[in-house]
Write a structure and sequence with these properties.
8 helices, mainly alpha, Globin-like, about 65% helix
Length: about 140
């Protein structure tokens, strides 16, 4: 029996839970809220570094629920950001974890990018590697 009455919603909830479980497993976390916060923070930071077309292409690979989070609060008129260095990129993730001193924003970024690359098509992961500056690309898995 369907939990929501719509297969598309049940499917995206299940897929989103898989992504969150992957983030939690990589960190050894049990806090789903924290995993969701990490996923949202890194994906939105990545989105803001991509051109509108690149963000749209990546979003097509995301589960419906995560795609909504990806675009939440987006203002594409001033994008992409021009950061070229990994520390500038990670600073945006760090801002969203300002009250949580027990996390490492660089590691959060690496883990979420690893989970992302595991779940999108290889071609999309390769495309991200091509469009991101070398220093930011170093945060992604090989």
């Amino acid at each position: 029996m369907s939990a929501t009455g719509l297969e598309v919603f049940d499917s995206t909830i299940q897929t989103t839970n898989i992504w969150l479980n992957d983030v939690m497993r990589e960190f050894g976390w049990t806090d789903r809220h924290k995993a969701f916060h990490a996923l949202r923070s890194v994906l939105q930071t990545l989105r803001d570094r991509l051109s509108v077309n690149e963000a749209a292409q990546l979003s097509a690979q995301l589960p419906l629920l995560i795609r909504g989070v990806f675009f939440e609060g987006w203002h594409p008129s001033d994008k992409p950001r021009k950061e070229r260095h990994w520390d500038q990129f990670v600073a945006h993730v760090s801002e969203s974890f300002a009250l949580d001193t027990e996390v490492d924003p660089t590691e959060i970024t690496r883990v979420v990018l690893r989970v992302l690359c595991r779940h999108v098509a290889q071609g999309e992961a390769d495309s991200l590697r091509r469009v991101l500056p070398a220093e930011i690309r170093e945060l992604m898995p090989a």
